[in-house]
Amino acid sequence: MFDIGWTELLVVACVAIIVVGPKDLPRMLRTFGQTMGKVRRMAREFQSTFNDAIREAEREVDLADMRKKVEAAANFDPLGDLKKSIAADPAKPAPPPPAEAGETKAAQSDPADTTAAPATFPAAPAAAPAAAPSGAPSSAEETKA
Description:
By secondary structure, the chain is mostly helical. Helix content is 57%, strand content 0%.
């Protein structure tokens, strides 16, 4: 840091003895040592406080990152994502429906193959009658009457 050699230290010691005097030199060196200790303690305290502040900021950044990940996982919507991907790319053909257990092997073949037998789908269930208002009799009560 400082380029001080033995000759410079000898010059400083001689000047200190001449200026302060040999009688007060030990007291001055003791005071100088105590002052340097205080300066080192203050520097160490400042550095540890600064490092603690940096660690706290890193924890907050990590905590914010973890919150974002949790929110992203909470907002996970596979059906919505699928709808968005289908709407975004209408040029691609829709994938064929999954094969059911009762279908024949011919029904499961390539849809571009015109020689394959047409796929049979189960009949749709009949629509249930609409619920009657709370004061009106239902259709089941009307048939009993």
